[in-house]
Amino acid sequence: MSFSKLGLSPQILQAISELGYKKPTPIQEKAIPVILKGRDVIACAQTGTGKTGAFVLPILERLKDEPEIRAKRIRVLILTPTRELAIQIEANVKAYSQHLSLTSLAMYGGVDDTSQKEALIAGVDILVATPGRLLDMYTQRAIHFDEIQILVLDEADRMLDMGFIGDINKILERLPEIRQNLLFSATLSPKVRFLAKTAIENAVQITIREKHNKPKINQYLIPIDKDKKSALLSHLITENKWDQALIFIETKRGAAKLVSQLEKRGVKAESFHSGRSQSVRETLLADFKAGTLAYLVATGVASRGIDIDNLNYVINYDLPDQADDYIHRIGRTGRAGATGHAISFVSRDDFRSLCYIEKRLGALIPRKIIAGFEPTKELPESSLKPDNKKFKSR
Ligand code: AMP
Fold first, then answer.
1. Cα gap 66→76, rounded to integer Å
2. Which of 23, 25, 89 has the most ligand 1 atoms within 8 A of CB, as the residue to mutate?
3. Ligand 1 midpoint to CA 364 (Å)
4. Are 60 and 53 in contact (CB under 8 A)?
5. Does the domain formed by 213-361 have CATH 3.40.50.300?
6. Mean pLDDT by 10 residues, the chain (394 residues)
């Protein structure tokens, strides 16, 4: 299938071809024709699958002949969990619409709102916003919602994880009733389904078969004693010459401690958690993305908002409590045809979380014992059997 068969105009096709895209990704192939028809869509797709193009390209097609927008109005609202994602999506909008005369803006908190307000005065065709700042602007009457035609809830699961449900509901209540709704989410958890029900009726549901993602992630766990985890990590980093790794850990204190333990063994890492200032976190992310920082030790909570993927190594130094968090984390690796590695350090204390993750995956995670790091406190065998007593205690 080629892009030209999807019903997109020459100006959009030209932009895609200038970006070097040869053919649509599976989510693009499925979603673009349905969105062009004006249908509501609920799509299960992760970052890295080309999902941004899947909604932005047909949106551009639908908007391209609209007259100039009125002051303080927007036509399309793309809600997204983080500032980084807002910036990234808006950059995609700009790239895809470079041969059209549409306007776009990324709007997010944590920065002075003056320039965002100024940009809104003229009206904006496509606004990519984080929920909190958007509501703030709405309350200040810097923006009106009455001309919104299309709503996109991007990374809906992450928005809910980050506690945006209250803001999202307030926004939904204020939108025009007649509109097209598009919801994209890496997982369709019960919370996401509930949100979808509130916002969307009669949607076409699109799921990209897991098959596309699964073989690309080499996922395994290493049974290890808790007090040997940092030695194991520095061993693996140096022994295997890992170029870069994102390491998830449970607490801020744990992150700081691990960084100093690694340093003592000659591995330079940085910690990323809510105790570090916004500007430090931004610099760390930029360095990590640029490859000048090799190892980032992030707490699960802080890392929910960060947008890093295409990594070769994702390490669960601590297992997350929530199985969905595990799926998010490993989804940051194994992109663009390359094989990624998602490695979890599992001590006996983590066994219960492991059981829930494996149950959610519907598969047991392969185990690897590393020579010299054999656990003294044995990790029990996992089992997916429904009558397994381990599942009943939670
Ligand atoms: P996304 O899932 O939207 O974050 O996209 C992941 C990456 O894939 C981005 O760098 C896009 O520019 C790129 N991309 C999106 N669609 C295509 C395509 N059809 N062909 C090649 N690359 C693409």
1. 12
2. 25
3. 31
4. no
5. yes
6. 92 95 93 97 87 97 94 97 90 96 94 94 97 96 97 94 92 96 90 89 81 66 96 95 92 95 95 89 88 91 66 92 85 70 95 91 91 94 65 43
Ligand 1, closest atom to CA 309?
4
Please, which residues have CB within 8 angstroms of residue 35's CB and are 6 or more apart in sequence?
A: 41, 54, 55, 58, 59, 62, 180, 182
Dist. CA 338 → ligand 1 center (Å): 14
The pair phi, psi for residue 27, each rounded to 5°, is -70, -35
- Which residue ranges have their beta carbon within 6 Å of ligand 1? 21, 24-25, 28, 47-53
DSSP one-letter string for 154-214: TTHHHHHHTT-HHHHHHHHHHS-SS-EEEEEES---HHHHHHHHHH-SSPEEEE--GGGTG
* Architecture of the domain spanning 3-211: 3-Layer(aba) Sandwich (3.40)
Question: What is d(CA 201, CA 195) in angstroms, rounded to the nearest whole number?
Answer: 11
Q: How far apart are CA 344 and CA 366, in angstroms?
A: 10
Q: How far is the CA of 371 from the centre of ligand 1 (A)?
A: 40
Backbone angles phi, psi at 159, to 5 degrees: -60, -40
Ordered by start, the domain boundaries in the chain are 3-211, 213-361
Among residues 189, 144, 192, which one has the least CA distance to residue 164?
Answer: 192
Nearest to 117 by CA among 131, 138, 102: 138
Q: Give the predicted TM-score (pTM) of the model.
A: 0.63
* 67 DSSP 8-state letter: P
Nearest-5° Cα angle at 117, 134 to 107: 40
